[in-house]
Specification:
The chain has 188 residues and is mainly α. The chain is 57% helix and 0% strand. It is built from four helices and no strands. Helix 1 packs antiparallel against helix 2 and helix 3 packs across helix 4. The longest helix has 43 residues.
Amino acid sequence: MADPAPEYLAAIASTPAQPATLKTLFDWTFRVIKALAAVVLLGLEDHNNDLHQLDARITHLENAAPVPPVPSSSSTQQPQPPGSRRRCQRCHALGHDTDSCRTKDPAVMKKRVAKNAKARNQPRKSAAPSFPIPSYPYSFSPYTPPPAPPPTADSLNAMIVDASELRRRATQSARDRKRFRRSQAPST
């Protein structure tokens, strides 16, 4: 197919300026619209040719290298081997088993952690509003939540105790990991 757009554009450009009558204005507008339609048609044909080339490439690639079938993983599911991230059933610390746990009193420690968690969550529960909050977009929301209450002495004490217990657990876990690696290393 011949390229009609340059012909129309050349015809428009070569036409001398004439007095504007309704017929000449209509003819000029029609030629401009026809030229624009020809340009759009050329663009669509080019796009269509690109799609055909892409389709041919996809077909060629699919036929060239068949993909091996993927084995189903549901029938051969195996448990993961235990790694270094084991959790003690007694003190719930990471890095050692129940057999190598050094926690002196696990029951007291579990009670302390539960009490500290309860003390941490207590101010949050009391600050929650008792009425439903309307779901407005953020910028249009008429509700502004009240500021969080300041921490009490009990909750601060609970956080300090938790931090020291977690620090002690971390050092114990690091010690246990070092001991486990030493026992796994081949002796010379």
